[in-house]
Design a protein that fits this description.
Layout (H helix, E strand, L loop, with lengths): L1 H11 L5 H4 L3 H4 L17 H9 L6 E4 L3 H7 L17 E2 L4 H6 L2 H16 L4 E4 L2 H5 L4 H12 L3 E4 L8 H15 L13 E7 L6 H10 L3 E7 L4 H5 L6 E4 L2 H15 L3 E3 L5 H17 L5 H28 L3 E5 L4 H10 L4 E6 L5 H11 L5 E2 L4 H9 L5 E4 L4 H6 L4 E3 L10 H16 L2 H7 L15 H15 L12
Parallel strand pairs: 1-2, 1-3, 3-4, 5-6, 5-7, 7-8, 9-10, 9-12, 10-11, 12-13
């Protein structure tokens, strides 16, 4: 556990964080983010964060060394997609029982599980995750993984991120450290070229990365490794031979990007594929970094030509929605990179942002929001459900974009809602993704169901008839009932 403590301290002393660089030496030791109290890891624990970063490596067997509930509660909770291998969708766990814990059988059971996976599936690698239970009882997964790797001639990677050490974001970073220590740099590719890049923090939610990759393909840019979205083990292992890196979500994997720059001289920048302007700027930044690392400068001209063509197509498609959505008000209850990238994307077509959550956003994210919105009045660190409901029920927003956990607040307030988080079923990245996002917002806002649910039900006449004499109420109700169903036929009700 002492090595884990050192690793955690190293992660919190991240010099790539602008906020941390501005502190004195004493304050810097406390880290750039305060770790949460064990048991209070709001938004997910470290184990969950590590699994989120690593499980989309699709051809790897992910083995959870824990009682069954740890794997059962964390399996398949993201909408990542694969274009090939499906092994990552198979759930592997050592399923420790109380007897295993008491009798000290955890390490032996782990070794046996690794052998069974090797014989049954023959994966290119096995990732082994520690959890709260196995860390507390002292199971040495690193020793077991090292022995298994030698015995079976197979990469067996220990992921030492038990849930109690901190938040989901810390788990993201510890997963990046595991890749640096055991995976990246272990395979030398025979096809490295001047147009190879890495993309970090792209999870391919609902296949979003598949909307961006064709743009890079047209420019002759090869994604050496997308970590973790739709990744393969050998691609990640050879990621050290890329010439540039784009970081989509800095708060998750900035330590990985910085250390890859230090070790292998791979420059990186932070960008976004949400929105037309940000997608274009990301492509330009990638081209500039590649030229800086020795690529032919002609790629700059080809990039501008591609951007000009794709922007014209996208704006032409968006023109049909501008008159329907201009001036509509959106409440964005999310965090991280989406707190500013989606804001910028929506404002491009004239949508007004009445508020955006910055709970999980970095200081850099917040500065971007200030520049985009011009002031801080629309930023909130956290908003209780009752406050969200009060805001929506007063019609201060025409639609709320958030994750699935807050959808029922909007539905109770009879306000349209659209999923913007990992559970969504539509991809919103790139030029085509922006058009799809706007289309979904338009469908949600103008869905006739909202006008209907806001009307008083036909059996509720308390407001309209409160001043009428008792004798007339039943007559009024009958008349309104006939008006409601006037002109209906049996066909309107379907077959009985």
């Amino acid at each position: 556990m002492s090595s884990l403590k050192a690793k955690i301290q190293d992660v919190f002393n991240e010099p790539g964080c602008e906020k941390n660089r501005g502190k004195d030496a004493k304050a810097r030791k406390k880290g750039c983010t305060k770790p949460l109290t064990p048991g209070a890891a709001a938004g997910g624990c470290a184990f969950d964060g590590a699994k989120i970063v690593l499980q989309p490596i699709t051809d790897v067997a992910h083995l959870i060394h824990a009682p069954l509930a740890c794997e059962g509660n964390s399996w398949d909770n993201r909408g990542a997609a694969s274009s090939g291998p499906t092994l990552w969708r198979t759930s592997f766990t050592t399923d420790l029982s109380e007897l295993d814990v008491v009798m000290g059988q955890g390490e032996r059971k782990l070794f046996k599980a690794i052998r069974e996976i090797k014989e049954a599936y023959a994966p290119p690698a096995i990732f082994v995750y520690s959890t709260c239970v196995t860390a507390l009882i002292g199971d040495d997964i690193e020793a077991v993984c090292k022995r298994a790797a030698e015995k079976f001639d197979l990469p067996v990677v220990p992921i030492n991120a038990p849930g109690f050490v901190g938040s989901k974001n810390l788990g993201n970073k510890l997963a990046g450290e595991a890749l640096l220590d055991h995976v990246i740099g272990t395979v030398e590719p025979d096809d490295a070229g001047p147009y190879d890049i890495n993309i970090l923090g792209e999870f391919n939610l609902s296949g979003e990365f598949w909307l961006v990759k064709p743009l890079l393909d047209r420019l002759g840019i090869r994604v050496r490794a997308s970590i973790p979205g739709d990744a393969r083990y050998l691609d990640v292992a050879s990621a050290h031979r890329a010439r540039a890196t784009m970081m989509v979500c800095s708060t998750a994997l900035i330590n990985l990007a910085r250390k890859m720059e230090q070790r292998w001289d791979i420059p990186f920048f932070e960008g976004s594929f949400y929105g037309i302007t940000d997608t274009s700027e990301a492509l330009r930044q990638i081209a500039r970094l590649l030229v800086k690392k020795g690529a032919d400068p002609e790629i700059l001209g080809r990039t501008e030509a591609l951007i000009l063509e794709e922007e014209a197509i996208a704006w032409k498609k968006l023109a049909a929605y501008r008159s329907r959505l201009e001036g509509k008000r959106v409440l964005l209850n999310t965090g991280g990179v989406k707190s500013w990238s989606v804001v910028h994307a929506l404002m491009e077509i004239g949508i007004e942002i009445v508020g955006t959550s910055v709970k999980k956003s970095t200081p850099e994210d917040k500065e971007r929001i200030k520049k985009i919105l011009k002031h801080e009045n629309h930023m909130f660190e956290t908003m209780a459900p009752r406050e969200l409901y009060a805001m929506l029920s007063k019609h201060q927003a025409d639609i709320m974009l958030s994750g699935g956990r807050t959808q029922f607040i909007a539905l109770k307030a009879k306000v349209p809602w659209l999923d913007i988080n990992q559970e969504r079923h539509q991809p919103y990245a790139g030029y085509a993704g922006m058009v799809e996002l706007v289309r979904q917002i338009d469908l949600s806002i103008h869905n006739p169901i909202w006008r209907q649910v806001r009307e008083a039900p036909p059996w509720d006449f308390q407001t309209s008839m409160k001043d009428e004499p008792p004798s007339s109420k039943s007559k009024t109700a009958t008349v309104q009932g006939f008006k409601k169903f006037a002109g209906t036929t049996a066909d309107d009700f379907g077959e009985c």
